[in-house]
Amino acid sequence: MKAKIHVTLKNGVLDPQGRAIAGALGSMGFDNVNDVRQGKYIEVDIK
Amino acid sequence: MKTAVIVFPASNCDRDAFTTLKNHVDKNTQYVWHRDTALPKVDLVMLPGGFSYGDYLRSGAMAAHSPIMQEVKKHAAAGGLVLGVCNGFQVLTEAGLLPGVLMRNAKLKFLCKEVFLKVGNTSTRFTKEYKKGQVINVPIAHHDGNYFADADTLKRLQDNGQIAFQYCDENGNITAESNPNGSQMNIAGIVNEKGNVLGMMPHPERHAEKLVGGTDGAAMFRGLAA
Q: Which of B48, B42, B31, B32 is nearest to B1 (CA)?
């Protein structure tokens, strides 16, 4: 069995990394991005 | 030779780069802010070390899309010289100006120490003052310097003589023990096919004055000035 875990900051907590990525997307011409949340993704293989 | 240093938010070797360029290459060197949309007329653009954009997303990934990088790409395509050191190397790979990627160091630690490098290619503007196989001593200071490229790319780098520097011991032996960060083939620096873009993790600009502990990096800048 594989557990897939997404870790992000709690809702409402400022995510400067996500915001910076959103800014970069904007400067690349993606003008339809509302928000970006950045986090970690972990795969755990369970016996 | 006219030169410029690009400054990204959280670049922190911009002043080292500026000082070394000023002392060895171009007394009128200048800073260029990452938001600028035009490069001044220069022969060499240097991308300094640091933590551009706080290393958000991946080291160099955000800086590679900075407005000024469009101009740096044009400059490189037209044959202009580009030197990326440390974070600058990461930006060059993220921008597609050099092949491969720089992953987290194999032992996951930030490394700040002096290393030995073997000079592999002496036919570029950056390395022509060195002798082939010469061992030089320069510092590294990075967390993500573990060079990775697929087997085809590595073969191409080798066949074209694009491997500029490899980590080695003080006698020039390229060994697993002298590889600080797990880089494939001990790669510390590479050039593009045309030889006008060099990216390297170690800091030649920090070993260009006796006062700061070493001068082996100075030859690179002397070569650029000549």
A: B42
